[in-house]
């Protein structure tokens, strides 16, 4: 059996037995290291292209994913996820969601289909608090679904609306999938979570407008007409729901005013929700808090385990150069940016049907982000396109999480729920195309906040750029650095790799004086080890000391040489000293030439007195 065939068989077997996702990812990652890394030859796992199954257990014992899991601790945005999960759990057990619904209902009561529009608005407001789509469906749907049925709306419309509007939970900031995207897409370019949050507002408004328009049309067909607004009811609802409405203002306002970061905003949301629910609304009591914390811990624990395994899988893909191979394969079709995004949308829609959004982001973003960069797609725009496409995965079988949630809380069969969301899925597809091909929808607010042009055109070009060959970029960079750096000046502390190369140049300079002696032995062209490098600097010091001794006074006592090997830090600084030494010698010679007194004219010879 070939290594690829073994991987496929193991993956399908784990799926068949309904093994948890983190186990599947971890098992395939460990097996991939065994079959495709140096372990395959070291332990004779793969011999002549065939897998020796009996040798796999021993090789697996030498695979560790701990380092990749530890890297998660270096990701500051990761801290925001447990806080947002906890704040969502607190609010779902309190009265914040109910008061948000009351405000929305009072505001849109005069519009045809106002109850449906208020459902969409309540989902948008609550999404700006919880950051979770299933939590939004459970919390808002539990209140609005009975109200829609009581108002005479059809069962399919009510179920489909609540289930679809709940997907706004991952698009309206703060969004947990956005945080995950920022973590896994920052390998090549640092992405700020705050920028992603701001970029999600426009697409969220687009989807909310499309869903609200459909509700307006449905209400008109039902016979509802515009009426006079009840401003008194709106005022009462606003007063009662003031603290609930202020939560999104505090979170997003604090982020974009610079008062705190996205991670700090997550912690603020927990404190705010606790204070409001315990001491103002008083719907949540202290004895209920352990159950709330337990619910949030269970969800967060499962996410962290999947994160750790996904990081290990991404390392394996990087070691096997899968992203580079995928980039070369995609670029072989000579796609232009518009075609590339169309293919990407289709691919992500299929992936959303088969994978949950967290796993899809963690596995696919490191692969697809470099490809999009070659086509000139902004990484923030790409992140929003990712999330909007995968958002549809919540509404499509077999992995549509919102479908299962609605089937459970509304006590309907899965088939009925799937049928109810079909019209709304069509609206979301329209939104996907708008967000994809009109980058201003997502990037406009981000640019406006940073002082750039609000309008952002879609990237143009006949084809996406081909990925640079390995080493080409480095050679170009080296040439540029050589041209830009002032001659005779050190550009700063050098890296160990540059240091090992630079000492070779020093050796060659000194060896030029002793070519006759070196020809017999031959020049050593290999890079020196750090140990040899530390010893070699002593020779440089001796060379400079000999030059200095010739200029020193005979009466001056020679300095005692430092026999202690230098540390790496001192060594990195010493190369700057070499450059300065050469520069100072040149300057001294120039100064001596300019300051040397002009010799006096020869005096006329005096006549020797005659004795």
Which secondary structure elements does this structure contain, and how are they paired or packed?
Blueprint: H1 3-16, H2 21-36, H3 39-42, E1 46-47, E2 50-51, H4 56-60, H5 66-70, H6 80-92, H7 96-107, H8 114-130, H9 133-150, H10 155-165, H11 176-184, H12 193-222, H13 231-240, H14 242-256, H15 262-280, H16 289-319, H17 322-331, H18 337-354, H19 357-374, H20 379-391, H21 401-409, H22 414-420, H23 422-437, H24 440-449, H25 472-484, H26 496-511, H27 515-521, H28 530-551, H29 568-595
Antiparallel strand pairs: 1-2
Helix pairs in contact: 1-2, 2-16, 6-15, 6-16, 7-8, 7-13, 8-9, 8-10, 8-12, 8-14, 9-10, 9-21, 10-21, 10-22, 11-19, 12-20, 12-23, 12-24, 14-15, 16-19, 17-19, 18-20, 19-20, 20-23, 21-22, 26-28, 26-29, 28-29
Low-confidence stretches: 470-527, 537-541, 546-565, 592-611
The gross shape turns out to be: globular
Integer tally of domains:
2
Binned, the helix content reads: 55-70%
In angstroms, what is the radius of gyration? 34 Å
- Give the structural class: mainly alpha
Mean pLDDT: 74
Question: How many beta-strand elements?
Answer: 2
SS summary, helix count: 29
Strand content: under 5%
Sheet with the most strands, sense and barrel status: 2 strands, antiparallel
Distance between the first and last residues' Cα:
119 Å
**What strand line-up does the widest sheet have?**
1-2
Structure overview:
The structure is a single chain. By secondary structure, this protein is mostly helical. The protein has two domains: 61 residues, no CATH class; 374 residues, no CATH class. 68% of the residues lie in helices and 1% in strands. The protein has 29 helices and two strands. The protein has a two-stranded antiparallel sheet. Strand 1 and strand 2 form a beta hairpin. The protein starts with a helix and ends in a 16-residue tail after the last helix.
């Amino acid at each position: 059996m070939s290594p690829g065939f073994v991987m496929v068989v193991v993956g399908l077997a784990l799926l068949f037995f309904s093994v948890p996702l983190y186990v599947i990812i971890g098992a395939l990652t460990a097996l991939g290291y065994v079959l495709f890394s140096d372990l395959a030859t070291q332990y004779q796992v793969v011999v002549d292209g065939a897998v020796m199954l009996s040798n796999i257990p021993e090789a697996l014992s030498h695979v560790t994913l701990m380092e990749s899991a530890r890297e998660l601790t270096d990701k500051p945005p990761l801290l925001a996820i447990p806080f947002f999960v906890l704040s969502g759990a607190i609010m779902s057990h309190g009265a914040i969601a109910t008061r948000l619904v009351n405000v929305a209902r009072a505001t849109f009561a005069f519009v045809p289909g106002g109850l449906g529009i208020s459902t969409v608005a309540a989902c948008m407001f609550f999404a700006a608090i919880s950051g979770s789509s299933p939590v939004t469906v459970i919390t808002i749907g539990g209140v609005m679904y009975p109200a829609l049925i009581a108002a005479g709306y059809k069962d399919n419309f009510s179920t489909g609306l609540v289930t679809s509007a709940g997907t706004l939970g991952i698009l309206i900031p703060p969004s947990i999938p956005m945080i995950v995207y920022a973590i896994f897409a920052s390998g090549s370019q640092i992405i700020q979570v705050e920028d992603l949050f701001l970029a999600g507002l426009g697409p969220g408004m687009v989807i909310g407008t499309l869903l609200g328009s459909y509700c307006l049309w449905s209400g008109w067909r039902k016979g509802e007409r515009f009426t006079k607004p009840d401003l008194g009811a709106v005022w009462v609802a606003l007063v009662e729901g003031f603290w609930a409405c202020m939560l999104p203002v505090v979170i997003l306002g604090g982020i974009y005013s610079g008062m705190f970061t996205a991670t700090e905003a997550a912690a603020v949301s927990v404190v705010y929700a606790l204070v409001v629910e315990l001491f103002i609304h008083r719907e949540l009591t202290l004895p209920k808090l352990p159950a709330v914390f337990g619910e949030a811990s269970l969800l967060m624990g499962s996410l962290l385990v999947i994160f750790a395994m996904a990081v290990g899988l991404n390392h394996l893909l990087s070691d096997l150069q899968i992203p580079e191979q995928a980039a070369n394969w995609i670029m072989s079709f000579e796609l232009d940016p518009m075609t590339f995004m169309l293919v990407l949308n289709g691919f992500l829609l299929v992936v959303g049907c088969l994978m949950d959004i967290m796993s899809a982001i963690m596995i696919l973003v490191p692969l697809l982000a470099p490809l999009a960069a070659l086509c000139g797609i902004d990484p923030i725009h790409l992140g929003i396109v990712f999330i909007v496409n995968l958002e549809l995965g919540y509404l499509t079988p077999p992995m549509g999480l919102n479908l299962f949630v609605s089937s459970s809380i509304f006590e309907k069969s899965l088939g009925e729920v799937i049928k109810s969301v079909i019209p709304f899925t069509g609206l979301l597809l329209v939104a996907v195309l708008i967000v994809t091909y009109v980058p201003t929808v997502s990037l406009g607010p981000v640019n406006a906040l940073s002082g750039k042009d609000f309008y952002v055109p879609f990237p143009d070009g006949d084809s996406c750029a081909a990925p640079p060959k390995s080493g080409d970029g480095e050679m170009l960079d080296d040439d540029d650095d050589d041209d830009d750096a002032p001659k005779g000046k050190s550009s700063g502390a050098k890296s160990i790799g540059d240091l090992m190369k630079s000492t070779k140049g020093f050796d060659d300079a000194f060896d030029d004086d002793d070519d006759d002696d070196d020809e017999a032995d031959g020049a050593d062209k290999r890079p020196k080890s750090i140990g040899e490098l530390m010893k070699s600097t002593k020779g440089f010091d001796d060379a400079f000391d000999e030059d200095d001794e010739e200029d020193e006074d005979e009466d001056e006592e020679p300095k005692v040489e430092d026999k202690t090997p230098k540390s790496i830090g001192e060594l990195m600084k010493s190369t700057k000293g070499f450059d300065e030494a050469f520069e100072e010698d040149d300057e001294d010679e120039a100064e001596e030439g300019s300051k040397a007194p002009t010799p006096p004219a020869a005096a006329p010879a005096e006549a020797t007195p005659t004795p």
